[in-house]
Description:
Layout: H1 16-36, E1 40-43, E2 59-62, E3 69-73, E4 78-82, H2 87-96, E5 99-100, H3 114-120, H4 127-130, E6 137-143, E7 149-153, H5 165-168, E8 178-185, E9 187-188, E10 192-199, H6 202-213, E11 219-225, E12 228-235, H7 237-247, E13 250-251, H8 254-266, E14 279-284, E15 299-301, E16 306-311, H9 315-324, E17 328-333, H10 348-361
Parallel strand pairs: 1-2
Antiparallel strand pairs: 3-4, 4-8, 5-9, 6-7, 6-8, 10-12, 10-13, 11-12, 11-15, 14-16, 14-17, 15-16
Amino acid sequence: MPDGRHPKLSHKHHSKTNMQTVLEQWRSQIHFAAQQETALTIRGSGSKDFYGEAVPEHSLLDTRAYHGVVAYDPAELVLTVRCGTPLKEVEAVLAEKNQMLPFEPPHFGEHATIGGCVAAGLSGPRRAFAGAVKDFVLGAKLMNGKGEWLNFGGQVMKNVAGYDVSRLLAGSMGTLGIIGEISFKVLPRSVAEASVRFELDEAAARRQMNEWMGQPLPLSASFWHKGLLTVRLNGAQAGVDAALARIGGERLADTAAAEFWLAVREQTLPEFALTEGRRLWRISLPDTAPSLDLGSMPLVEWGGAQRWYLTDAAAKDIREKAAALGGHATLFRGAVAADESVFHPLPHAVLAIQQRLKQAFDPHHVFNPRRLYREI
């Protein structure tokens, strides 16, 4: 295609002129909000609305009209896409070339967009073994709080001159600007995949994963719950076969394994469901750290580095226990009290840096104010 768009999606896209019209509409909304001293809620499909600080509903800036694949070079493993493009469409385009987004992003909704994926900065089961969202962002185009269209990074890994702003946008929750376009490093899908399961208690599962992660095994996911450790292997057929022979375990049928990892990624397992009086906490810890006493058994991912707790424990107690082990805690789902914060409180010096970043990119505080931290 002359404009670099993927042919399979071209009929779904507006013309380049219409895309420019969308940018002008955004710019008008930004200028009006700044003049009126009001704010804008940046939103794609709203699939991640539950995540982050709850803020009053401001005027909506909908990103979905700005969509489509800008460029895709399978040979160079680089994809550039507009923010409003549905995540499932991005994954479908990559699947045609037997490629993927390596960080296995959760959707949390049928219509999730790629811009929301980056803004939320959430990664799936593969994150501990492949990398996080930010590790695969090569570049981005951003509209800032002055309505300026800024270009950061590029389309190759070595293009890192200056500050790496494009990666800074991952997890920024739309507080710095509208992430208009993103360039990703993508990877080929593995030739072979297998999942195996072991009956182990939590401590034994963490010890076993810690041992395996120090060995040359083609691990791509791990999850422990209800006395069962499930491990996924990806790679060349010979490598996966050799790993299966080495670690043993009960192999899951391919269909059952795919359904299981999808349920882990999308948090549709019953163990993730909120119950009365309990909230879902995501706690990041060193993978060798012992279990926290929070009145419930955790769900353990990433070899022990990410743990989920459904608990009624107080935020202060949870964060003190996590910090004592070198970790931090995020209130992922559930009501937030007035004296609590969703994300682990930042040291004063780090918070000051965040505030200066906000001021530099969004001087009129137009974009998603207080969505990340209430002080920003």
